[in-house]
Amino acid sequence: MPRLKFIKTGMLDIDTRILANKGLPRPGTIYVLGHPGVGKTTFATTYLINRAKENEKGVYVSLIENKELFIEHFRGFSFYDDLVKFIENNTIYFAGAPPIYGYDSKRILDLFENIENLISSLNAKNLVIDSVNALTLYLKMQQIRTLITRLYHLTIDNDLTTILIGELPLFSTTALSSSEEFIADIVLLMDYVWITSGVPRLAVRLVPVKSRMFNIVKTPYEVQVDYTVGLKLIHELIEPYVPFTKEVSRGAGYMEEH
Predict the structure, then answer these.
(1) Using CA atoms, how far apart are residues 81 and 89, in angstroms rounded to an integer?
(2) Domain parsing of the chain, residue ranges
(3) What is the CATH number of domain 5-255?
(4) Tens of pLDDT along the chain (258 residues)?
(5) Which residues are CB-neighbours of 57 under 8 A, at least 6 positions away?
(6) Helix or strand or coil: residue 193?
(7) How far apart are CA 249 and CA 189, in angstroms?
(8) Is this model's pTM higher than 0.90 or not?
């Protein structure tokens, strides 16, 4: 098993205040969870771009949009030209969207086999799957467990930093994901919280799943999407708050380290 190390995201606020001046684990899996529109895709894409600048290749798997729409989403960001360049030269390999005839379990499993081949052929060090919900939608529980097991070994065997994006239902107040569906070293929960003034704020907080990664206070920070750096922290949420999301999956219990 490769030796654990930590890789900077290139987003200074995230690295220093959320990730305890460490970065993301490698090999390791990061589960980025939140409602639509909170900045999950921006976080993952900014990370891939910053790592591409360090000559690391990445694979972005989108099951919800095609390459053109994905790129257009970031028009206006300072890194837009870099994103286009890295996708064109396959430093960031974009795989998606679904065929017009849709997915079924066979196509999902075939897609995952293609991902494994891509990681190997490109010698990629970073993988993003957007979203895990879409990836597992057409699979039975046993197939999901098999897929997650393969993803775990893909991450370890290839010394990857893997980011899994998870979508919460728009009006849900609880993370309903099964503990057996996902495996993660850390969870970044991006969600809205109510503060005492009654105004909702977008916040991000770290949920350390495995003690070997982080052992820090899980204090949320107000965060905003920034067109220059990707994500920017505003300040620590010190005043009383109530999270929209009451609980979060803590990973695949049958794979948890003891």
Answers:
(1) 12
(2) 5-255
(3) 3.40.50.300
(4) 789 999 999 999 999 988 888 899 999 999 998 888 889 999 999 999 999 999 999 999 998 889 999 999 999 999 999 999 999 999 999 998 666 556 778 888 888 899 999 999 999 999 999 988 888 888 888 888 888 889 999 999 999 999 999 888 765 655 545 544 468 888 898 887 766 666 677 788 887 676 556 655 567 888 889 999 999 888 787 655 555 555 444 444 333 343
(5) 90, 91, 92, 93, 122, 123, 124, 125, 126
(6) strand
(7) 10
(8) no
